[in-house]
UniProtKB/TrEMBL annotation:
GO terms for biological process: thiamine transport. GO terms for cellular component: outer membrane-bounded periplasmic space. Residues 1-26 form the signal peptide. Keywords: Periplasm, Signal. GO terms for molecular function: thiamine binding; thiamine pyrophosphate binding. This is Spermidine/putrescine-binding periplasmic protein. It comes from Microvirga lotononidis. InterPro entries: SBP (IPR006059). Transmembrane segments: none annotated. The keyword Signal applies.
Length: 346
């Protein structure tokens, strides 16, 4: 998935060296972006080249996964980058660590044209620029009765046919929320009941997966017929197993948001605001969705049914999503890791 960079990539060391050596005016024309580095060629064409032309600035990058990049920003006391892309779980950690600054909505007018769920997902800090979901996928050729509820994961006919995301993945902690709902308890107040329900689910679980490619392989080889999954895996799995379907759950799917924040020590906060406004432009969002990069949050984006089928898209679908309290979830994770090991590490 990691795209090949063509033009703008520079190592962080080079970027910082350039910043320290350049005159003040040039420093004000450099925006440093922390992100994953996926889809590099497409992002260069759709976002970076036109933004560079608009701002007359240089763009440099720090790339890596959520945890590594957030840790670097923490070590630097919130400095070293201007704009920070993270999943909402990690951006919540950054907010709690005091690593980001509020985003001035008056300087990002395109926020007014995005779905409510994306405008202020974590208060006064950064908006979400794309939205996804976590639900259940199943092979309709092998599962006779359609799956319509999270509680169906416990069905007797699904014994040794299910895969769950590992607890350290983005979707992993949501397994505890699902189990708590099955047990009828608050996962943050009665963790033991939630994990007892997970233990009851264990006979149905063949294997827990940690990457999307691992899940694709499990379906391709026929090892599993059902999985709790993020929607970005669906197209790849359907390419291998066309009879796989996304379950329509009566309780709704869980929302996953990717956010964009401004670092507390950003050297160019004005330019950072301009960049965030740029990526929320409906035309940019339309192109990103059509080219298979990200699901749109701009309400003005119009997709064909075929284009929309791969995304979390449209008011009806987005309004049905269940939001997570990542402040509570992040605080509970350590205890959940131990309890998870007790259930699935045996």
């Amino acid at each position: 998935m990691v795209g090949r960079w063509r033009k703008p990539v520079a190592s962080m060391a080079l970027a910082l060296a350039a910043l320290s050596a350049a005159p003040a005016m040039a420093q004000n024309k450099t925006l440093t972006i922390s992100w994953w580095g996926f889809n590099g060629d497409k992002l260069e064409e759709i976002i970076l080249k036109p933004f560079r032309a608009q701002c007359g600035c240089d763009l440099v990058f720090e790339t890596g996964n959520n945890a590594d990049r957030l840790n670097k920003i923490k070590i630097r006391g919130g400095g070293g980058v201007d704009v920070v892309y993270l999943t909402d779980s990690y951006s919540q950690l950054g907010i709690q660590e005091g690593l980001f600054q509020p985003v001035d909505r008056a300087k990002v007018p395109n926020i007014n044209g995005i779905y409510d769920i994306a405008k202020e997902p974590q208060g006064k800090f950064g908006p979400a620029y794309t939205v996804g979901r976590v639900g259940i996928i199943y092979d309709s050729a092998k599962v006779s009765a359609p799956i319509t509820s999270w509680n169906d994961l416990w069905r007797d006919d699904l014994k040794r046919r299910v895969s769950l995301p590992g607890i350290t993945t983005t979707a992993g902690p949501m397994t505890v929320l699902v189990a708590a709902s099955k047990a009828g308890v608050d996962p943050y107040k009665d963790e033991s009941a939630a994990f007892k329900a997970l233990d009851q689910l264990k006979p149905n679980v063949v294997k827990n997966y940690n990457t999307g490619s691992e899940l694709v392989n499990l379906f391709s080889t026929g090892e599993v017929s059902v999985a709790m999954a993020q929607d970005f895996t669906l197209a790849q799995i359907q390419a291998a197993v066309p009879t796989v379907r996304w379950a329509e759950l009566k309780e709704g799917d869980y929302a996953t948001l990717n956010t964009v924040n401004i670092a507390k020590g950003a050297a160019n906060p004005e330019l950072a605001h301009q960049f965030i406004n740029f990526i929320l432009d409906p035309k940019i969002q339309q192109t990103l969705a059509e080219r298979g990069v990200d699901a749109p949050v701009a309400t003005a984006v119009q997709l064909t049914p075929e284009q929309a089928s791969r995304w979390t898209y449209g008011q009806k679908m987005i309004s049905s999503l269940r939001r997570l309290d990542y402040e509570k979830l992040n605080a509970a994770k350590t205890d959940w890791l131990d309890a998870w090991s007790e259930v699935f590490g045996k």
